[in-house]
Amino acid sequence: MAYVISIANQKGGIGKTTMTINLADALQRFGRKVLVVDMNPQVHATKTYGAKIEGENTIVDVMKKDCSAKEAIQHMPMGDILPGDSLLNQEKMYFNSLTTREKILKKAIRSVDGDYDYIMIDTPPELDIYLINSLTASDGCVIPVDATQEYSIQGLDEFMKTVKEIKEDLNEDLKVYGILISRYDNYSDQLEFVKNLPEFAAQYGIPAFESSIKKNQFIEKVKKLKDIENEDGTVEVVNRSLFENYGYSRGAKEYAAAARELIQKVEGV
Q1: pLDDT tens, residue by residue, 138-170
Q2: HSE-up of residue 76 (Cα within 13 Å, Cβ side)
Q3: Regarding beta strands 235-236 and 118-122, do their DSSP bridges make them parallel or antiparallel, or are they unpaired?
Q4: Using CA of residue 246, residue 248, residue 254, residue 259, what is the dihedral sign?
Q5: pTM of the model
Q6: Rounded to an integer, what distance in angstroms lies between the CA atom of residue 168 and that of residue 190?
Q7: Average pLDDT of the segment spanning 45-58
Q8: pLDDT value at residue 29
Q9: What is the C-alpha to C-alpha distance for residues 66 and 46, in angstroms, rounded to an integer?
Q10: For residue 139, which of 119, 115, 122 has the smallest C-alpha distance?
């Protein structure tokens, strides 16, 4: 049985996708088999993995029961991904009309949770049917907070209310593995926030990761690597792994430390 973990916060632009991808990549470096599920209509994780959407089965097809999760998973150079789909936006009304709408994803991924050690879910940046599905399907969540953006910190109030409601009504076993700083810089106020993160997290009754991710050029640079177009017209998908391309970088080392800490929190080892 896989550990299902959502990377979630109800704010956009705070590094959820980047954290999902790099934690998944780092977990693989520690010998874990990982599946990424893209529940974000912006499909940034899908694009980074180089997975196809058009003409392929996606998360929409899986949730509508037009195919199984196994039939939709794509095996890419970075790892396995259940690709997202921008059609999630227009299908929202349909999914909201279903009687057991909150548990669609949980039921859909049940068939593959024996094939992986971890299933990492990249969630949308708002409270909607897809975030609710993600948290309902999860054993726990990691909360990214961008110390360079004040609204990211302020948004934690809203998210913790959502977690409380999910635990009360849909998933009483949902854990919060902790707040993980997704980005910070050398400004004194940000350094102070990182230093005092355990006290800040304690206000919500949740833990904080000892690890944190400092702003790093290689984390952004690796996502912009272009696929290779061959002379015969075929396209070779580039491996956009931070660890494969810039394993010497501070960003890679910090994500490795965060993944090691996550393993300790989840597996107790």
Answers
A1: 999 999 999 998 877 877 889 999 999 999 999
A2: 29
A3: unpaired
A4: positive
A5: 0.96
A6: 34
A7: 97
A8: 97
A9: 20
A10: 119
